[in-house]
Amino acid sequence: MYKVKVFVTLKESVLDPQGSAVKSSLHRMAYHEVSDVRIGKYLELTIDGPAESLDHRIQEMCHKLLSNPVIEDYRYEVEEVVAL
Questions:
Q1: Which pLDDT band, with edges at 50, 70 and 90, does 51 fall under?
Q2: Taking Cα atoms as reference points, which of 54, 22, 27, 51 lies closest to residue 38?
Q3: Would you tell me how many other CB atoms lie within 10 Å of the CB of residue 23?
Q4: Is the predicted pLDDT of residue 49 greater than 90, yes or no?
Q5: Nearest CA-CA partner of 74 in 49, 36, 42, 51
Q6: Digit-coded pLDDT (tens) for 6-45
Q7: In 3-state terms, the chain is what percent helix, strand and coil (to 5)?
Q8: With contact defined as beta carbons under 8 Å apart, do 1 and 45 qualify?
Q9: Domains of the chain as residue ranges with CATH
């Protein structure tokens, strides 16, 4: 069994109005040290299956459903879960 952590973010070339709004709010709250904010998604998947096809299957899921490849990038981390 594997725990997969997926991080989805807007591509650098895509404007992030939600991030801009959060940055403005932080500045109004006197957090002037914040120079940029980008908003993204974090997902955790628990997957049962063979290790040899895991990377391919995760990439397929990210590309087809979990991210929008036109405007978003993704990365993921895989951790093996040991049964107790």
A1: confident
A2: 22
A3: 17
A4: no
A5: 42
A6: 999 999 999 999 999 999 999 999 999 999 999 999 999 9
A7: 35, 30, 35
A8: no
A9: 2-80 (3.30.1280.10)
